[in-house]
């Protein structure tokens, strides 16, 4: 039917259900009658949820990135009837503006090209797939790890990252700023290696970069000061105005990063930030059977009944609103969080270029706490206690606002990241000072409660998303398991979480399950000729490419995590099993070595 009915299959939104720009394009284009007529007359339109089908997303995102040098969501791709990509891009406005073609213009150009240049267009699509397939099937020249991972690779990665360090506002790179936990973890690890080798001065300098970055993120608007947790990224260089979606994979990784910072520095500030994230997840993101849910939207209605949703409406505040809620402590709170009568989104020209937040405030800590405590003539402990009580009052008011949409899917890979964080925190946070005081939104719970969260999440996956007969995972769950099978990341991230459950909780059943999953992962994804793991099983013929993901980005790659898993499994087991894990780890590292020196910033997790 497709060959007769359609000229092009169009994927109008491969993107997050919580993605702000996906919502913008949905309203501007997909709900526009003019756009709808063009789509319905000329195309078969398919909407794909990136979270449910990351394999589909990866194929066409790779195409768009290779063709245009960048990607993102929403991802718009035009396909031939046999699913070969022809053209693509990301967000398009409905009409031409700012020198960019609008979506209607793009649709007309694709239609014209299909009518008049079809052969050239299809040849281009075939060539692109062939080239990508060839590039993605690089074979390791050896199966032996001759000299180990190059000793200078870690130093080279750290030096390149250091060159992009923002010494004024923290973080690496310029706006928009993403937390990128893999970068922070690498620099923390590098500082420890420097310290171990006696390079004390450089170790302190590297550690200072990381800790300052974590402090800036925690004080910025990317951090939800009232409810806990972190938003996706900051649009400006000061970590102030975020895109407000909250993703589980960010929470899991950032909780682990702040935990690592606490371990290295012994500063309870970082332990409290880890608790801040985990307590947010416990309160707002746990399902009825202990499963950990995926995400919260960036957009919500300002008032009940409003059809129009606005980004950040749930999280931002007017100065007078704060006055009315906090009364005598309003002045202290507004000083601390830089709240201004006309709004505070003016710290950077990038913070609010379209005046979307005029008259509103995104909480950010700019002033010195000790100086403010002195200004209000009170001990720091009392000052912090008042701030906590103020946050509680704002939280209660905020809870009565229309909430952002909750994406209640359960994704195995993201649960794996969170399981790791909860399991590690259950043991490491026991080393906090007994005198530590916790202010809202922290609960100050016994760390063993975090272990219970991790165990319940893992048990949910075993009950609902794991087949005891085939030892296979399904990718996600919402009102039942998804049809999509588990992908490499699902296996690798869950195995990592189970190994942490075993290491920090002590129950051997988690190690046994981890070994079962590793065996299945090897069976389904391992490239025994070229080395490394494919993202997919290859059992679905409609997925045109079997990609091997090496890039550590918003999430670590399945191959990087697998290398670490195999090394850990080799140390936790014995005999032939241990030898097999060690050998597989070496083979995987050989493949990664082909790219590591030239592209070391792609392998930060490793």
UniProtKB/TrEMBL annotation:
<dbReference type="GO" id="GO:0009507">
    <property type="term" value="C:chloroplast"/>
</dbReference>
<protein>
    <recommendedName>
        <fullName>Spermatogenesis-associated protein 20-like TRX domain-containing protein</fullName>
    </recommendedName>
</protein>
<dbReference type="InterPro" id="IPR008928">
    <property type="entry name" value="6-hairpin_glycosidase_sf"/>
</dbReference>
<dbReference type="InterPro" id="IPR004879">
    <property type="entry name" value="Ssp411-like_TRX"/>
</dbReference>
<dbReference type="InterPro" id="IPR012341">
    <property type="entry name" value="6hp_glycosidase-like_sf"/>
</dbReference>
<feature type="domain" description="Spermatogenesis-associated protein 20-like TRX">
    <location>
        <begin position="13"/>
        <end position="132"/>
    </location>
</feature>
<keyword id="KW-0732">Signal</keyword>
<dbReference type="InterPro" id="IPR036249">
    <property type="entry name" value="Thioredoxin-like_sf"/>
</dbReference>
<dbReference type="Pfam" id="PF03190">
    <property type="entry name" value="Thioredox_DsbH"/>
</dbReference>
<dbReference type="InterPro" id="IPR024705">
    <property type="entry name" value="Ssp411"/>
</dbReference>
<dbReference type="GO" id="GO:0005975">
    <property type="term" value="P:carbohydrate metabolic process"/>
</dbReference>
<feature type="signal peptide">
    <location>
        <begin position="1"/>
        <end position="17"/>
    </location>
</feature>
């Amino acid at each position: 039917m497709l060959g007769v009915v359609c000229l092009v299959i169009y994927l109008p939104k491969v993107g997050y259900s919580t993605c702000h720009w996906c919502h913008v394009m949905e309203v501007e284009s997909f709900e526009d009658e003019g756009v709808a007529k063009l789509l319905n007359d000329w195309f078969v339109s398919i909407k794909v949820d990136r979270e449910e089908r990351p394999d589909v997303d990866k194929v066409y995102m790779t195409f768009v990135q290779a063709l245009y040098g960048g990607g993102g969501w929403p991802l718009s791709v035009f396909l031939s009837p046999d699913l070969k990509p022809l053209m693509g891009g990301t967000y398009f406005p409905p009409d031409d503006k700012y020198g960019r073609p609008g979506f209607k213009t793009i649709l007309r150009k694709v239609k014209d090209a299909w009518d008049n240049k079809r052969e050239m267009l299809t040849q281009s699509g075939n060539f692109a797939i062939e080239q990508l397939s060839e590039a993605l099937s690089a074979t390791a020249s050896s199966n032996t790890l001759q000299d180990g991972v190059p000793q200078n690779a870690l130093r080279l990665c750290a030096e390149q990252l250091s060159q992009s360090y923002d010494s004024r506002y923290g973080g690496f790179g310029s706006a928009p700023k993403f937390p990128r936990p893999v970068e922070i973890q690498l620099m923390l690890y590098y500082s420890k290696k420097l310290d171990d080798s006696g390079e004390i001065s450089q170790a302190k300098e590297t550690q200072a970069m990381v800790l300052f970055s974590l402090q800036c993120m925690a004080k910025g608007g990317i951090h939800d000061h009232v409810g806990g947790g972190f938003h996706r990224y900051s649009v400006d260089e000061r970590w102030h105005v975020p895109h407000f979606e909250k993703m589980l994979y960010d929470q899991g990784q950032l909780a682990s990063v702040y935990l690592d910072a606490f371990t290295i520095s012994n500063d309870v500030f970082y332990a409290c930030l880890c608790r801040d994230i985990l307590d947010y997840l416990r309160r707002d993101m746990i399902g009825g059977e202990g499963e950990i849910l995926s995400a919260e939207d960036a957009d919500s209605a300002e008032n009940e009944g409003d059809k129009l949703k606005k980004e950040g409406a749930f999280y931002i505040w007017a100065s007078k609103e704060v006055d009315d809620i906090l009364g005598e402590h309003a002045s202290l709170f507004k000083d601390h969080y830089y709240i201004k009568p006309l709004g505070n989104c003016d710290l950077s020209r990038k913070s609010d270029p379209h005046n979307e937040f005029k008259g509103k405030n995104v909480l950010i800590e700019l002033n010195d706490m000790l100086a403010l405590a002195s200004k209000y003539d009170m001990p720091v402990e009392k000052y912090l206690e008042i701030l906590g009580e103020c946050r509680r009052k704002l939280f209660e008011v905020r809870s009565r606002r229309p909430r952002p949409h909750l994406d209640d899917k359960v994704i195995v890979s993201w649960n794996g990241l969170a399981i790791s964080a909860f399991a590690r925190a259950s043991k490491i946070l026991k080393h906090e000072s007994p005198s530590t005081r916790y202010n809202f939104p922290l609960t100050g719970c016994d760390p063993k409660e975090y272990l219970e969260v991790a165990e319940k999440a893992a048990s949910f996956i075993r009950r609902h998303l794991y087949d005891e007969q085939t030892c296979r995972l399904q990718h996600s769950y919402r009102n039942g398991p998804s049809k999509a099978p588990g992908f490499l990341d699902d296996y690798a991230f869950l195995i990592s979480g189970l190994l942490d459950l075993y290491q920090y909780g002590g129950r051997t059943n988690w190690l046994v399950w981890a070994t079962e999953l590793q065996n299945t992962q090897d069976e389904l994804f391992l490239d025994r000729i070229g080395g490394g793991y494919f993202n997919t099983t290859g059992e679905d013929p409609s997925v045109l490419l079997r990609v091997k993901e090496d890039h550590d980005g918003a999430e670590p790659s399945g191959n990087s995590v697998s290398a670490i898993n195999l090394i850990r499994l080799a140390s936790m087991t014995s005999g032939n099993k241990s030898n097999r894990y060690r050998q597989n780890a070496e083979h995987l590292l050989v493949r990664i070595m082909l790219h590591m020196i030239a592209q070391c910033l792609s392998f930060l997790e490793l």
